[in-house]
Amino acid sequence: MRDVDGRIRSVRVVDTTKSGARRRLERRLAERGDPTAIGIRRQDTFETLANLWLQHRRDHGKARSSGALAPQTLAVYASEIRNVIIPAIGNVQIGESTVPFLDQLFADVEHGRRHGRCPARSGGRSTRQLRVVLTGMLGLAVAHGALPTNPMRDIAATARGQRSEVQHLTAPEAHHLRLRVRREAMRVPNMRKPNVDLEEFVDLLLGTGCRAGEGLAIRPVDLLDLESPTPLLHVCGTLIEPRKDYVERLHRQDMTKTREDRTLILPDHVATMLQLRIRREQPAPEEPIFATGTGNWLSPANMRTRFRMAIQRAVEHGTEEDLALQGSTLHTLRRTVGTLVAHEVSLDAAREQLGHRDPSVTYQHYVGKRAVAPDVRSTLDVLFRPL
After folding, report:
1. Structural contact between residues 300 and 212, judged by C-beta atoms closer than 8 angstroms
2. Residue 96 and residue 102: Cα distance in Å, rounded?
3. Crossing angle, helix 46-60 and helix 128-143, to 10 degrees?
4. pLDDT reading at 38 higher than 80
5. How many angstroms separate the Cα of 294 from the Cα of each of 104, 191, 288, 351?
6. For residues 285 and 198, is the Cβ–Cβ distance under 8 A?
7. Where is the Tyr recombinase domain (predicted)?
């Protein structure tokens, strides 16, 4: 066979039987492998391939475009490898990755069945991220010559259930939510009232449609002409939360999730609230408007916990208005803004407000269904002129 240095060499083995010698020869040839597959070989396991692929992504960045891969994205990939790929198929050799083998893996994960050491999970789980990771891993194996083609190209698509309704709040529900997150409503008997962070943060999200991390990343320098008739907010960053081995500490990233800035016109109520907050807290131009007691960035996880507690307390009241808030999250406020703007202005206005590149993302995930189609009678009347 042709070796890694390009020279042709004979491979010889000895065994007591002809069939035994053939098997030993096949194993020896497999061990030597394709001379062009220097980094990854067919007999390498998925666990080995996963570690090599993660390092490759660290070194080379994004697979389809230039630029480094964000640490939080690497953390998501590592989590999928640690929680699913290694327990399920970590000891399987790359060369054994056939289409039926991978189809069975995805079917088991989607339906919550046990696969290898990956435990069963009630209700199953999404395989979207798993598909991304395995496609990248096996693509790298193909690039190294360990596989002739990527079997992920022929894997059956995920079975798509009926699209769930976009959860959002109506205007009356949003108004009731604002009442329930006020510090007076959140007060525990015989204890000091909580601060106004949550109620003011909820107003900010309802008035902008920002992501939670974007809202907490706002600084005084990002606010323009607050006292003018058109107060502006320049959304140009987000907070990155700690991820073990990938993100050491909470910090501000000087770009949004989509890496595109946007400038929003603030409602008068939100502009006034931010003015008063800046006067009260007196942060420096580059410091957070929503800060901890020591002046550091306020964690999105902290605000999510506060909001969840507020919703739980509201639901405990048991009224129809309170029960309507059940299941709401900070992201529900973003969908509420998207739905309202899309219905009252346009889908494109909602897309720009939320900072999406693709209007289909806005429509599918951030715009709730209308109870009644818009009134277009005046438009349709032109079809019914007297005959």
Report:
1. yes
2. 10
3. 90
4. no
5. 52, 22, 11, 36
6. no
7. 164-381
Please, what is the end-to-end C-alpha distance for the chain in angstroms? 86
State the pTM of this model: 0.79
pLDDT for residue 36 is more than 60: no
The C-alpha atoms of residue 282 and residue 288 are separated, in whole angstroms, by: 10
**What CATH number labels 171-366?**
1.10.443.10
* CATH number, domain 40-154: 1.10.150.130
Token pair in block for residue 233: 């907010």
What ranges do the domains of the chain cover?
Answer: 1-32, 40-154, 171-366
HSE (side-chain half, CA atoms, 13 Å) at 336: 23
Instruction: Give CA–CA dist 346/243, Å, rounded.
Output: 38
Pairing of strands 251-253, 238-240: antiparallel
- Give the pair of three-digit tokens for residue 334: 């973003």
Which phi and psi angles does 34 have, rounded to 5°? Answer: -70, 125
> What single letter denotes the amino acid at residue 317?
H
Q: Which tens digits make up the pLDDT trace of 221-257?
A: 999 989 899 999 999 999 999 988 788 899 999 999 8
Closest CA to 1 of 19, 23, 28: 28
Kindly list the distances between the CA atom of residue 4 and the CA atoms of 12, 38, 57, 145, in Å, as whole numbers in the listed order: 17, 8, 26, 13
Instruction: Fill in the DSSP letter of residue 382.
Output: G
Residue with tokens 């420096």: 284
Q: Which token pair is 305?
A: 């916990």
Phi, psi angle pair for 306, to nearest 5°: -60, -45
φ and ψ of 299, to 5 deg? -70, 135
- Between 330-344 and 197-208, two packed helices, what is the crossing angle to 10 degrees? 30
Q: Cβ(174)–Cβ(307) under 8 Å?
A: no
* Residues making up the chain, counted from first to last: 387
Q: Model confidence over 156-190: pLDDT tens digits?
A: 877 665 667 899 999 999 999 999 999 888 877 77
With a CB cutoff of 8 Å and minimum separation 6, the contacts of 268 are 231
Q: Which residues pair with 93 in a beta bridge?
A: 45
Cα(272)–Cα(226) distance, integer angstroms: 8
**Closest C-alpha to 65, from 57, 53, 76, 77:** 57
